[in-house]
Specification:
88 residues; mainly beta; three-stranded antiparallel β-sheet
């Protein structure tokens, strides 16, 4: 669900709201109670839940080339794309 930013035109109070895309925009300000909230234009907000996102998350069996794995092929190099190349 996206996080929307609102600003009250009456009192200037700003807030964020976690809402479904299909939800109606908020109208009433929680500070002053007036129906003067307007959505702000801002960068899209999102949340990544879980322990992390890695290249190996969706691979099975011997397709996983883990760093430091002695199973051959990896030779101790990181399998994250672009991480070693950026430092050069």
């Amino acid at each position: 669900m996206p996080i929307y930013e609102y600003r009250c035109q009456a009192c200037g109070h700003e807030l964020e709201a976690l809402q479904k895309v299909s939800d109606a925009p908020l109208k009433d300000c929680p500070e002053c109670g007036k129906p003067a909230l307007e959505k702000k234009i801002s960068a899209a907000g999102f949340r990544l839940k879980g322990g992390g996102w890695y290249e190996t998350d969706f691979k099975t069996g011997k397709k996983k080339n883990l760093a430091g794995d002695s199973g051959g092929g990896g030779e101790g190099k990181s399998t994250v794309k672009g991480s070693a190349d950026k430092d050069k």
